[in-house]
Fold each of these.
Amino acid sequence: MNGKSLIVIVTYNSGNFIEDCLASIAEQDYRNWQLVVIDNDSADDTVQRVRYFRNQTTVLNAENFKLIHLRKNIGFARAVNLAVFSHIKTVHGRKEGKTTDVFDHLILLNPDIRLLPGALENLTATFEGE
């Protein structure tokens, strides 16, 4: 039920709303995910807010969360590819090259979204025919 998901959020000057987005993910009952936030060289305090939120919660940790802060804005599509491929490299590089995670779903979220309770569970269940 509800296979493992890789959630990717690409940010750019998202400081006004990124914490609400992250909180809505952290509040989900469905927790079978890993989250990658990739910042496209924001000029505001987006990265600091992501780090602050990460340090204020036990839901996001080294096992399920990664922040990538780019020094150049490479656009949305390239940022998604970078987030996915760098995460796959990290996963494959653990434990002597053994794959530790297989993802059934890739979920792309905009940083200004706030998920309703049960949203991730409902989304993944839809793709699993439940």
Note: Confidence is low (pLDDT under 50) at residues 91-99.
Amino acid sequence: LGDLIARSAARLLHRIDPATGLPRPSPDYWERPEEKLTLGVAATALMGLEAAAALVQDGRVPEAAWASAGVDPGALASAAADLRRRVVDEFGPRYPRYAGGRPDAAVTFLLPPFLDEPVPGAEAARLRAQRAQARPAGGVAPGAAWRRDGVSWTPQTALQALAAREAGRDEEADRWLDWLDRHRTATGALPEKVLHDGSPAAVAP
């Protein structure tokens, strides 16, 4: 996978706007055109750069792969550290979807297991955001600004479980996992959505 890793790192570096030090706006997991940078894009770019820098330290990507992709492997750690600082400056301390905006499930991407080290303040922001993202059936929406249709989304609810477990909040993690387990389809698969009345909806698994 060395060539793929190196090309991916090159793409992430190419997407950084020299004027801001942040990724240029692009669609994120909400799957819609974006003119402003979202936390989901900034956070996943940080995930990728920090992971690439860690692989450089491990020596697991051949030098030829980095050279072919036009990446200086020695510069990845400083690029990742700079992006981390800029994400904190732009989105902290609340880490909303857009700078100065409303909470978003992507705050979980700033925490383990997605990053080895949590971004300062992200765990507190995740916990604060839960009320705004909560939906009637007990799960969460992709963000506080998501349409008020009463639908819970299992991927975003599972992100809460992952982040809670990694933070040592086992009781919270168990609560989210129990909720997911209770809202499986009749065949035992997890649906993408859970309606306001608790019934599964959309694609499964």
Note: The chain has a mean pLDDT of 97.
